Amino acid sequence: MSKHRFRDIKQGKTPHTTKSTPKSKKHKVPYANNKQKAKAALTDSFMLLMPIMYIVFYLVMGSREEFAEDKLIGWLYILLPFIIVQTLFMYFGNGQTPGYRAYDIRVVDSKTFQKAPLFSLIFRNLAMLLSLLTVIGWLMMFFRKDKKGLHDLLSQTAVIYSPRPRQTVNSQKSE
Q1: Three-state DSSP class for residue 89
Q2: Is the separation of the CB atoms in 169 and 55 below 8 Å?
Q3: At what angle are helices 34-44 and 135-143 packed, to 10 degrees?
Q4: Does residue 95 sit within a domain?
Q5: Per-residue pLDDT, 112
Q6: Residue 49 φ/ψ, nearest 5 degrees
Q7: What is the model's pLDDT at position 24?
Q8: Nearest alpha-carbon partner for 90 in 116, 58, 113, 62
Q9: How far is the C-alpha of 20 from the C-alpha of 23, rounded, in Å?
C-alpha cells in the first residue's frame, strides 16, 4: 500500500481508504413531549369530560348522592361517551381533540405517520383506561425516548408535534 498525502485525499484525488463513512441522516420524528400531552389532556378533561360528568350527575343519575350510591354504573355512563366523543374528534379532526389542537399535537399511525385508522383510535382510547389504571402503563412515557405510553404501543399509534401554519393579521384579506 502506498501512502497518500492528506491534501490529495482531501481534494478527492485518491480514494479514501479508511473505514469511516458519512452516516446517513435519519428522519427525526417530532414526538410530542409529556408537558404538551399533559396540558392537552387537562384541556380535554375540562372541555369534553366535565360536560359529560354534569349530564350524568344531574340529568341521568339525578344527583351526586345517587351517583355516589352506584359509582360503577355512573363511571360507565361517563367514560363510554367520553371515549366515543374523543375517538370521533380524533378521527374526523385529523387526529386532534380540542386539547391536542390547542397544543399542536396529533395522534398518527406509528408506522406511516399518517392519519390513524378508526379501529386503532378506538383501541387506543380504550387501552388508555388500562394505561391509567396500571401505573406502569402510564409511567412508560416518562422513560421512553419516543414518549409512548402503553396505550400507544398496543394500538401502534404515536403522538407527534405538528404545528399548523399561523396566519398573521397582514395576510388576512379584509372585505
Answers
A1: helix
A2: no
A3: 140
A4: yes
A5: 92
A6: -75, -40
A7: 47
A8: 116
A9: 9
Cell representation of residue 39: 396540558
Q: Has residue 25 been placed in a domain? A: no
Predicted confidence (pLDDT) per residue in 15-43, tens digit: 655 555 455 445 688 999 999 999 999 99
CA atoms within 13 A on the CB side of 145: 2
Question: Does a structural domain hold residue 71?
Answer: yes
Low-confidence ranges of the chain (pLDDT < 50): 21, 24-25
Instruction: Compute the Cα dihedral for 105, 106, 107, 109 and give only its sign.
Output: negative
Contact 12, 122 (CB under 8 A): no
Please tell me the pTM assigned to this model. 0.75
How much is the pLDDT for 4?
Answer: 66
One-letter identity of residue 166:
R
Contact 130, 137 (CB under 8 A): yes
Containing structural domain, residue 51? 34-161
Grid coordinates representing 96?
386532534
Domain count for the chain, please give it. Answer: 1
**Rounded CA separation 120/159 (Å):** 13
H-type helices in the chain, by residue range?
6-10, 34-44, 50-54, 64-69, 71-92, 98-102, 118-133, 135-143, 150-155
